[in-house]
Amino acid sequence: MTKLDSDLDPLWQDLDWAIGQMLIMGWDGTEVTPQIRNLIENHHLGSILLTAKNLKSAQQTARLVQELQTIAHQAGHPQPLLIALDQENGGVNSLYDEDYICQFPSSMGQAAAGSAELAYKIAKATATEVSAVGVNLILGPVLDVLTNARYQPLGVRATSDDPQEVSQYGIAAMNGYRDAGLATCGKHFPSYGNLDFLGSSMDIPIITQTLEELALSALVPFRNAITTGKLDAMFVGGCGITNPSMSINHACLSDQVVDDLLRTELGFQGVAISECLEMEGLRNEIGVKTGTVMAVEAGCDLLMLCRAYDVQLEAISGLKLGVENELVTKERIYTSLKRVLRLKQSCTSWSKALNPPGISLLSQIHPSHLALSLKAYDDSIAVIRDNEKLLPLSASMHQEEELLLLTPLVKPLPASSLTKALLEAKNRADMPSLHDKWVHRDRGAIMSGEGVFRELGRSLARARHGKLLHTSYTANGVRPVHENLINRASCIILVTADANRNLYQAGFAKHVAMMCSIMRASGQKKSLLVISVSSPYDFAMDKTIGTYICTFDFTETAMAALVRVLCGKFKPQGVLPGTLRKSRKVLKSRQHWLVEAYNRDRDGRGLDDLLQALARASAPAHQFLETTSSHTFELFNPNIEEAHFVVRNSSTHALYGFCATYFVQGTGIMGALFVDPGKRNVSIGRSLQRRALRGLIQRRGVKKMQLGIAGLKQWFANGGWDLQFPRRLNNMAIESLNSWSAPEGLLQSIQRANISFDLIYGLDNAESVLVHASSHANPEVLELYRFALQEAKTCGVVRAKGHGETLLGTVIICSPGSPLAGFIPPLHFPSSQDEPIGGIVAPIVPPSTPQAILVLQGLALMGLRQNKSHKSLRSVLSWAQDEAVEPLLAMGFDVVQAFEEFTNSPENARSYDEMASFGSMPAMPGATPGPEAMTMTASEMEAFSTFTAFDDSLLTTFEDPFSYSARPFEGGGASASALAAEAFNIDASSPQELDNKLLGFGAPIPGKATLITDAGQYVEPLMTGELYGMFFVAEDVFGADSNTSGRPLELTCYRRNLWQISGQITLPRHVAQFVDDMGRHAPALELAASITAVESIEGRIAEMITIPWRGSNAPVGADETKVVSVPPVVPLDLPSGQELDDGSRVSVPVAWKRLQFKHATANNGRRKGLQQHYVVQINLLVRAKSGGEYVKVAEIQSGPVIVRGRSPRNFDSRKEVPLGDKRPLERRNTNESAGGGPKQQQQNQQLSGAEGGEMGRNRFGSVGSVQQPPTDWATPHPAYTPAAQQHANKKMAMTSPSLNRPPVPSWGSLDANAKHNNKPTAKTQRSNSTTAPQPLPINLSLSEDDRSPPNRAGSNDSTQSPQLIKSSMILSAGGGMSGLGAQGQPGTGQHPLASPLDTDDMLYEYFPLSLDDWMPPVDAIYRPHVVHHTIVPPEVKAQQIRSKAKRYFAAE
């Protein structure tokens, strides 16, 4: 039997008990089930994973955890259960309780706030809350680096794409968790930040980077977190790794990842937790039993199995079988057992586990945590761009103007009030509310995903007290309801949620942006704000989106903060994360900051805060900064002149930067330079250094400038510093003096050399020492010796003497807690209370001294003896020159830090100052973007390390990863297939060009004619173009065959989808003639552009058509043709074109709108033998006489487009619609039912014509027309006149002609009578009597199939919301008007479909999607644990694979 350690309970000899401690399991349900009880009592399960499915409230959670711990205690468990929880904040929380548990921003949102201190407070608050309900292990922090940020689904769960920033915030969060008493678990090792997704979403993602590449980026935060010694556990992911050095299917099952990389290379000694072994890929490929054994063999200590009881029992039996078969040794079991027990001892005990503080503690801390939550969200909201100055909305739009909110269908967050309400309603089987019944009367219920942003719309409508229209959008694109609402509103807010993963959102946003741009060009007011509620990478670098805001999650608190931003309640201060922030701020790197002189009373506290922020940012590399204070920099030495400078916020008194300078005996010294980690790359460091150098070179008698650095050499070199001849200085230490002993033979060697030593205190016998220091050291070292000799109680100087009392060398000795430690932080670590540190400072041994090495070692030996006599447990030797390192290493010292000291002439500093004054300071190429160190060389302060990431660091090296090139493709007169192959075989190294290559057109291809200017020069036309509309990237139907792997990507669309083309043609202003391919010259009478398309199989012409406007909804000035036609030939008017820079060339815009392909491609492009596609061409034409034939001058071609027939979703939804005239009752015409039949509609039209006149027209145009409507075009809204503004209530009455509105749940504080009394007030009656009635809603079926009924039930494509159906248009069955009085006044009758709560919410209207337009909501938060571990039926998985191809623009 394997022998246990003496400190382990003999109970663990039973392998069943030991195995139970190696498992962490969960279950579905909010109560303890017999299954989970059985696992704890009979299988000795030692750890529990709680998820959102287990937790309803804080009080329920506390009771549940207490019950679990009680079961374990009664079952004889020696130690409590580990209770683990995912509580990352943002969109990933497991516990939600609006009364006791606060919401905080996601990891990226916290980084956007720009404060690691805030991240620490958030982590501590979160840990305190979950600890109160009994949780003792939190699965965090997230340490993944978004290496390829734009295309990675982890998104806002990670901090950023900067390894140093991830380390900074990850360590801050880890410290917060630990300080609240929780154990921590870093994740997801080795990284989920750069995954390659192959096949369907059910496949396991893989890492393709090599270990060397991972070490440079992805592994940096993990390494830094492990180095702190505070990381208790590591979550090892289940992804695969494929690179030249390894091929691994599941990282958590590989000893190369867990034992070799994590434990051996990174030195992790904590608990390794496996990814859930229930994941589908592992179950299908390996099986749970074998997977369990492989995970233990790989080095995992805790094996996770989430919820399936039968699978959990299978895993237990598999592990026991592995022991029986000797695949897993008992020693391996006990190794993991010890790690798990050590983890439990650090975070829990039976007294804590059985008595969680629960609600009593939560109620006390909730107010302060709520204030922290509000501040965090306010600080995190980031306005990336506001080029059109649309914020706040009150400054850019009038109150009576309508605001449109367009939101995607997304799944509600698992831990949110909406999910909680849905679950409660489901459990109660509640009936829908009156409002929901009325609005969704044709569908019966709110469709999934539509409710997520409803409260955002209501809150925004209330906050601005103006009308807000709201509808959703899907991958079906811009539908008629969208077009009409966009025409109706003057400002559009479009929300995206991780558009780079849900690519249809990006396409929809670009389409809407194009529509707004066209309307603005015609003089209409159409403002667009795009708001990303998840990843900021959606449109971070797309300048076509003029106003772009990021919230980083869509929790209730985040949306409330967004409303406050939109309404101007505060000015957002959030910034872009990682390299996005640096690339953005590099554009402003030439700004100058006001630099002020440091004032101790005013700036001392701010400097302390700045130093603490730097300490957290640099942890664990520079821990001594934790004890550095503002007093450290003030020497109060009469021989040293001091001048310190700050960049500060005069309003908040916060310091953004600090620079310390000293002047001693002709030497000017830059002692320290600090920049706030959250304020880097905005010229603060540059401004401080410029001011500091200017002050030093103005000193009388300055002979040289001195600088010490531990990084950023290239930046200083470009700034004029000569860094060719550094002097290296080192800090060294012996960590344990108690275990140290002198090297063998050292004492004998010193004795044989006749070297003696003595110790002096005070200045009485110090003359020889001061002369020695003055002769062989810099002036600041001399002052250091003078200071040490004056502190006789705690400091002294050891002298080494040779024959005749010759002074050979000196060194300063200081006892723990000496005043000198206040100026040398390595002598005063945070752990100094438990480990007194002795100092050995500034040894001076001239190189010419006989036996200099032996003298140095003797001085160090005497110093160590003195430190021991002062009860020091640790000894630090500071200021050791480079030649002294090897002898000191031989004595047992280790190098802690190394610095380089440079000495320059004042002329170099003057040249720097001149360059900075003219704004021409060289950029810093290739500087590390993370924290770098610049050290101090002032007396007593050489050891300080400052952290500056200068703003110029990326000026010459940054390449915009999201740029959208406007240039045409390279390559000229290639064939269509060759051009497509060249343009669309996108190299994986340049994913940023994929969007515009797929939607753009290639380079011009010469035609049969060449244009000639009036000067006789041949013309090479420049042509560009782009497709707009609902295009997706087609899936590769050929699979992964070797002979098809080089196929280009293809676009796909449905035949009925409307799309359009816009482009530019650039030509000389004066084109006189052209020459054809036969060499014949002819005058160029007319130039024109046309579009055509060809198919790929036989090269035939593919027909395209232009769809006319239907009904009366065409904008004024639009083409009134009501028949389908071919796209027109557009004449080019060169004199009216936009003149380019040189004046000799003009650019003429061309556009074709409302286009469709007439036929689908063969077999929908799904058969390998008939992969037909279309190529769209823009042609430049010329003709010699009016009415003659056009000759092609040049053409540009799009990429291949596969055109499909009816959407499978639409086809399925209409399969029960008969082709005849009869319609099933449930799909009757909504408008007909509301209007009382054909006869009734005729009477309505007569009434509208008699009383409404032109007001009977539908007042909402569409995007196809760019003409400005005439000013006499009647609308129900009064014209806005600034001189005659009206009270909000009056304006609402005038803009609300209908009394019969749908019921809306109340919000805010309403009059109690209003909820039960729907009678209109006299004021409302008067307003309604002056407002002309509006016509019945008109179904705008833009591109519906001819077999579709003209008005499908459930479709809401009209311009009117259900709230605007007029009771005044309804006649009673007897022919009288039940809704109107004799004079058109509202009567007492009420429309049967009108809401009984019509006055509750007059400001907010939601337009539900039709059944045809609805699609399943997407998940805006990527959780590999959910996505890759769910067992999906084969038929569902097949549908997911098919639907995955429906992507906008770029392949995933």
Polypeptide structure, described:
The chain is built from 41 helices and 50 strands. It is of the alpha/beta class and 1452 residues long. The protein has a twelve-stranded mixed sheet with strand order 20-21-22-23-24-31-25-30-29-28-27-26, sandwiched between helices. The protein has an eight-stranded parallel sheet with strand order 12-9-7-6-3-2-1-13, sandwiched between helices. Strand 22 and strand 23 (667-675) form a beta hairpin. Helix 5 (116-132) runs antiparallel to helix 15 (359-380). The longest helix is centred in the first third of the chain and has 22 residues, at 359-380. It starts with 14 loop residues before the first helix and ends in an 8-residue tail after the last helix. The model is unreliable at 434-447, 584-589, 915-995, 1037-1047, 1164-1169, 1207-1400, 1427-1433 and 1439-1452 (pLDDT under 50).
Report the major sheet. 12 strands, mixed
Number of strands: 50
Helix content: 25-40%
Q: Residue-averaged pLDDT, rounded? A: 75
* Alpha carbon gap, first and last residue: 54 Å
Task: Estimate the strand proportion.
Answer: 15-25%
Q: Tally the helices: what do you get?
A: 41
Name the shape in a single word: globular
- Spans of at least 5 consecutive residues whose pLDDT stays below 50 are 434-447, 584-589, 915-995, 1037-1047, 1164-1169, 1207-1400, 1427-1433, 1439-1452
Write the layout of secondary structure elements.
Layout: H1 15-20, E1 23-25, H2 34-41, E2 47-50, H3 58-74, E3 82-85, E4 87-89, E5 92-93, H4 107-113, H5 116-132, E6 137-138, H6 163-179, E7 183-189, E8 206-207, H7 211-216, H8 220-228, E9 233-236, E10 240-243, E11 246-248, H9 256-265, E12 271-274, H10 280-285, H11 288-298, E13 303-305, H12 309-324, H13 330-347, H14 350-354, H15 359-380, E14 382-386, H16 393-396, E15 403-408, H17 417-428, H18 434-439, H19 454-464, E16 468-473, H20 480-488, E17 491-496, H21 504-521, E18 527-532, E19 547-550, H22 556-566, H23 578-585, E20 596-597, H24 600-618, E21 641-648, E22 655-664, E23 667-675, H25 684-697, E24 704-709, H26 713-718, E25 727-734, H27 746-752, E26 756-760, H28 767-776, H29 779-790, E27 795-801, E28 807-814, E29 837-844, H30 852-869, E30 874-881, H31 885-890, E31 894-904, H32 906-917, E32 933-935, E33 945-947, H33 976-984, H34 994-999, E34 1005-1006, E35 1009-1013, E36 1022-1029, E37 1032-1033, E38 1051-1054, E39 1059-1068, E40 1071-1076, E41 1081-1083, E42 1086-1095, E43 1104-1106, E44 1130-1131, E45 1138-1139, E46 1145-1157, ...
Parallel strand pairs: 1-2, 1-13, 2-3, 3-6, 6-7, 7-9, 8-10, 9-12, 15-16, 15-17, 16-50, 17-18, 18-19, 23-24, 29-30, 38-49
Antiparallel strand pairs: 4-5, 10-11, 14-19, 20-21, 21-22, 22-23, 24-31, 25-30, 25-31, 26-27, 27-28, 28-29, 32-33, 34-48, 35-40, 36-39, 37-38, 39-46, 40-41, 42-44, 42-47, 43-46, 45-46, 47-48
Helix pairs in contact: 4-15, 5-6, 5-15, 6-8, 11-12, 15-22, 19-22, 25-32, 27-30, 28-29
